[in-house]
Amino acid sequence: TNQHRVQLVREINGAAATTDEINTTTSLNVTQTTVRLRLDIDPATGNATGSYQIGSGQFVQLGSFTLPTTF
Q1: How many separate helices (H) and strands (E) can be counted in the chain?
Q2: pTM metric for this prediction
Q3: Residue 58 CB neighbours (<10 A)
Q4: What percent of the residues of the chain are helix, what percent strand, and what percent coil, each to the nearest 5?
């Protein structure tokens, strides 16, 4: 069976920063349904938060990272 997951990862110069990687903990049933991804940036805190939505369900927050000031 196919396993579908959502991953939030921060890249630096095109390479994944392995310490900044968050994955869904279980396989998601996304066969023939819409998957929406959302990335919210809070300039006041410097945080980037990733969320996903499957079908018409609620958005699920995957996690967040603090971005470097150079972003």
Answers
A1: 0, 5
A2: 0.78
A3: 8
A4: 0, 55, 45
